[in-house]
Amino acid sequence: MVTTSLALTTSVAAVIKDGVAVPVATAGDTVEVILAETPFYAESGGQDADTGEIRGANATLHVIDVQKPVADVIVHTVTVTEGEVAAGDQVSAEVDRVNRHQASKAHSATHLIHAALHETLGTDANQAGSYNKPGYMRLDFSWRNPVTAMAREEIEGIANRAIREELPVSTNVMNLDEAKNLGAMALFGEKYGDRVRVVEIGGPFSRELCAGTHVANSSQIGLLTVTSEGSVGSGARRIEALVGADAFSHLAAERSIVAELTSTLKARPEEPERPHRRTAHAPVRRGEATRPVPPAGDAAGGGPTGGDRNRGQRGAPGGARVGDRGRRRRPAHARDGRPHPPWRREARGGRGIGRGRWPSPGGHRDQRSRP
Ligand SMILES: [Zn+2]
């Protein structure tokens, strides 16, 4: 049985070594342990397993992996660091809270990237697999065309804007039909019961069927940086990103490289001219408005404020949220310059991002993608 608590007192139901139940395991052994109740999250839904410790009167166990081979059976792979543990022992089981929080950040970041993909490319960019662990996420999606550098920047920009906008995260259990009516993104190929868990980030901005763990507010993710995007097979692409402190470390390392290169080349580390970004929808350089700035007090306006140079930032109360296309021009590159389909025009009326329809069959979202 799984609980929502991160620590609890329970008992050892079984100790398994090399696939066989054994009465006892001793220091130095790596064994599998089943508990009567567990606070540990087993790897599922693309999210890596919890780590932590199990302590008994006579033993300390370090939990290195948690799997759910069949429904309702959770198996902890542990190393016995001291003492010995036996079936029937009373133990305290405690999840590594920092690790769990970092994992939750990465999982929530995966949902933001998925929402940003729909926003940028459209709902045909269906998630086909995902994997996330502390500091890292990847998401595979169905898409036949190359994704331009500009689209990649936009995906990253939308996800980071969602982080800055401090969107609340909520989970609700509801009937499957109710979730479909809300436009929650589901995984075809996954079997769902009548009751499903829907995770929302910023209401309709991101609404997915998901059993994973999440932050309470998007701002807790801190920062996200896309590190790669490319083809992983016919009609399939993968986007990878670092999250939180790992994202910062990556950007800081890149800054060091740029400093070194500019020193070697005796060049000035200025932002280069990037004529391809000088389009109506693209972010522009400091001091330039992304579009004509309406008169003060116009809630539909809200030009750049503070140090935030991205388009569509929040302005006056009632101004745009992440998903408000009314304040952003659609990128022509995303859909080859074709006119916006009807659902996109609908979305201007306040619907969520990419919620025009239930995804088409064939996807396998929220399952661990192949490495
Ligand atoms: Zn999820």
TrEMBL record:
Domain Alanyl-transfer RNA synthetases family profile: 1-253
Keywords: Aminoacyl-tRNA synthetase, ATP-binding, Ligase, Nucleotide-binding, Protein biosynthesis, RNA-binding, tRNA-binding
Protein's UniProt name: Alanyl-transfer RNA synthetases family profile domain-containing protein
InterPro entries per record: Ala-tRNA-synth_IIc_core (IPR018165), Ala-tRNA-synth_IIc_N (IPR018164), Ala-tRNA_ligase (IPR050058), Thr/Ala-tRNA-synth_IIc_edit (IPR018163), Transl_B-barrel_sf (IPR009000), tRNA_SAD (IPR012947)
Keyword Glycoprotein: no
Region Disordered: start-end pairs: 264-371
Compositional bias annotation for Basic residues: 275-284
Record family assignment: Belongs to the class-II aminoacyl-tRNA synthetase family.
Bias type Basic and acidic residues, positions: 333-349
